[in-house]
Specification:
three-stranded antiparallel sheet; 47% helix; 2 domains; DNA polymerase, domain 1; hpI Integrase, Chain A
Length: 390
Amino acid sequence: MARPRLELGTYGEIKVTHKTDGSYRARAYLRDLDGQRREVTYSDRTERAAKAGLKAELTRRVTRGLQSSATLGQATQLWLAELPKLGYRPSSERVYRSIAERNLVKGSLRDMPLASITAGTITRFVQNVTEESGPGAAKTARTLLRYVLTYAVNEGALHTNPAQGLRIRASTSERAQIDAGKERSEGWELHEGSRALTDNEQRALLDYVGQDPTARAHNLDLLVYLLAGTGTRIGEALALRWKDVDLTKKTVTVQATVVRLTGRGLVIQEEPKTSSSRRVITLPAWLLSEVESRKAERQPSPDEPVCLSAKGCLRDPSNTNRELQTVVFNPSGFGWMRPHNFRKSVATHLDERGLSAREIAGHLGHKNPSLTQDVYMDRRAMASTAGANL
């Protein structure tokens, strides 16, 4: 039986082949607008990216540019095809693509024409994502929606971007999630998962790590010391190499982070999270001593990571988070701890010692000191002394 003829502007089955250079080639036959049947191909690093790029190219071929009648899902596919050209870091591109595909290409608005999207539509969309996936995912989805609609404006499919400048008030459920991480009662009675360590708690935790043979066997003791003594992000700490350590100047240079990339695995990305994250940190005396003794013991090469796994490999941040929880935090009685608590602890301790918000922001790698004040400085420190100044 003969294969049914493709209608104008439609395409057949998408087939993917794995090329010898490791990339993927997606292809399909399109019944073009002049009636001719043509093969269209698209290659990319992964099978999913090749398919997405081919779909975007097929859509572009039949629409001859984005039109207002196009749906949000179609516009998002076209924007995703342009994503590799926009200069995002590979790790950011991977996150953007995942969230855009889940919430925009396949989400509740995927079949809505661009011209029908309003501020009210966007508000309801963001609130739905918040309830399903949490405030963090909703914030990113809203940002990507704005990018896609800006792309539609630039392509002439929309006159204005309904997401531009839109402020969305937190819903009752979202405010409840946010409030759950704030003080549950007055004074020192804070939600533990969001607070800094006290000086006594930090000493107790570091003493435990220094004396626990299991933590040493897993090569976690030096990592805990670095997190507690520098306030770096865990990906930054795992990306530190011995060439970044200057024992003479008593500093470490933060200039990379560890990420897992599709098709490449675990790599050291030679750019930290943001441009402000590139910085030089002075080591406290107690940490300098630990780093000196570990270097003398291991005699490492300059390119070797400071915090290797027990097998001598580059550490995965996600796996290391779980390992810290099971090997260090839970057994030591700090089960509420997460590695990010060390950043809050460092910010709070520096604040208690009189450093300005701008100085602390520079130490943590923040561009905006207000973020450091609002999120990383534990308000207990301010509340305990404010009354004496009235």
